[in-house]
Amino acid sequence: MPASVEFLAAVILISLSQSGNLVSGRSFSIDFKNNCFLKDGKPFQYISGSIHYSRIPQYYWKDRLVKMYMTGLNAVQMFSHRYVPWNFHEETQGVYNFTGDRDLEYFLSLANQTGLLVILRPGPYICAEWEMGGLPAWLLEKPNIQLRTNDTDYMEAVSNWMAVLLPKMKGWLYTNGGNIISVQVENEYGSYYACDYNYMRHLQTVFHFFLGEDTVLFTTDGNRDKEMKCGALEGLYATIDFGTDTNISEAFDRQRRFEPQGPLVNSEFYTGWLDHWGDEHAMVATQNITTMLEKMLTMGANVNMYMFEGGTSFGYWNGADYDTRYRSVVTSYDYDAPLSEAGDPTEKLWAIRDVIKQFRNIPSGPMPPATPKFAYGFVTLTKVGDVSSLLNILSPLRPVQSQHPLTFEEMKQYYGYMMYRTTLPRDLSGPTALISPLNGVHDRAYVSINGVFQGLLERDITLVTNITGQKGDTMDIFVENMGRVNFGPKINDYKGLLSDLILGNDVLTDWNIYPLYIDETIAGGWPHSKSQQSPSVSKNDLSAGPAFFMGTLQPNGLAWDTFLKLNGWTKGQVWINGVNLGRYWPARGPQQTLYVPGPLLRTSQPNEITVLELEKAPEHLRILFMDRPQLSDT
């Protein structure tokens, strides 16, 4: 399930046999007679690992790639669907960003310099536990759009995106002197309900048009007949994915039923697994991985380990799953992978390296060490103010007035938070039920009356909360988008208030809806800039409900990685020096710390910390910078 379309769905292959880049005479193809890949006319087997450039700061890209190379991999998968996330590069329709941490071609260049081949997985859908599986939320502005089908609106958007992305990739094809040896079309499409072959044929045509007829195109699907049947298409080489709980022979027999000849390929061999909020921290035993990896390599199979490094879903980029209910994925994408969330070699990496040694020569030289870590200690924060009192700062434009609630997508605010405000239609003689009758709160709503927090509503879990108040009192509904569904049939995941709320017997109407520019405001210096300070708040005002807090980490000449623990805090978001680290929720777990990359820190100026606590801050108002992560609440 995890990824196939991931961010720019690039599978980076680290090439161990370092033959120089030959501008001419280079080829990569499938030898159906001898059941293998051919690179420059010679049989080629890859041992690959997945890495998501969108989950790692650009500063560390080279470090991670070199560690993968020194492990002995000859291939890396980098995703925009596991891989190249479309929404990471086109957050707003028609506005493309390939700079900084989004500079995909620079990442390809670093991989090339390191000696890595690339298996590109550009989507358009990637899963990867990434927000909406990499699809941009603005697609949902068309309410009847049928995602991942031959729907006219969807295919127009996909074709426009591919017309931007694929020409950038063409020069990086191995046959053109680059390092991309193969390209995935879509991702785990057989797991999607639509089973639309016309859609897959259209994508095949688009990829051939921009990349050429000779480019090796492939699909990846799960280990079930239905998934292989709906995901495979003639002319696209069908590969399979599975983990350590699978019988290898049965899985590859299934691939053989759809590809009778050609190389055996496990495109996603799971080295770990993801965490949802409220789960136990997932782990996969090293012995199980190494035993199975050795068996597959002995068979001559090509293997990509998913993940080799997972990284972090900074900001709002985490996805969610929906089986019997909505479950949001945690911020850390450590994945129990061979390289940790912070890029450090683990015992699992060394064990995998020992297996690879049996099949090829390992590059000589030392493995780059773990990045230095530092425990900066405690920082005490002060309260800036409740969100309800800060709307003039966070939403400087006039609110949108509407008889009924509007979604995030209708408001063109795709991520983060929005405020819905109305007034109580009558006196409430006692606690009165506020109801989301159609489970229309997506995903979590914090309810205040006249600025006083009274309760919350949560998708699939809490559909009713009791409130009190008088006619004309101001009711604020602060709604959190906790990440769109990234896998399965419910990826049309609209956010905000999707239906009316009912108070007792009254349908609430006449809403003022505030889009909140929280990230932009914090990046602009608030609340630390004296010119943007809000009215002072009593130090004793620690009432519950959404509120901002601020503090500074004083410089000590070091800018080393660290881990932020918010012991006693409930749920919220953290920014350091204007960069959104992601969500914390220690009260639900399992993740207890947020990874802070050293390059974000200043060595000669105070580091500005901003915390949005959504429910209740502890009286001590302290946060702790540690030198090690805690990804399990045990």
- Percent in strands: 25-35%
Helix content: 10-25%
By secondary-structure content and strand pairing, the structural class works out as: alpha+beta
Radius of gyration: 25 Å
Instruction: Count helical runs.
Output: 11
For the record, give the distance between the C-alpha atoms at the N and C termini, rounded to a whole number.
26 Å
Rounded average pLDDT? 94
* Count of β-strands: 35
Main beta sheet: 9 strands, mixed
> What form results from the Cα inertia axes?
globular
**Low-pLDDT residue spans:** 1-22
Polypeptide structure, described:
It is built from eleven helices and 35 strands. Strands 1, 5, 6, 7, 8, 9, 10, 11 and 12 form a nine-stranded mixed beta sheet that branches. Strands 17-28-18-24-21-22 form a six-stranded antiparallel beta sheet, with no helix packed on it. It is globular and about 80 Å long. With 634 residues, the protein is α+β, with helices and mostly antiparallel strands. Helix 1 runs parallel beside helix 3, helix 4 (152-170) runs parallel beside helix 5 and helix 8 (286-298) packs parallel to helix 9 (347-356).
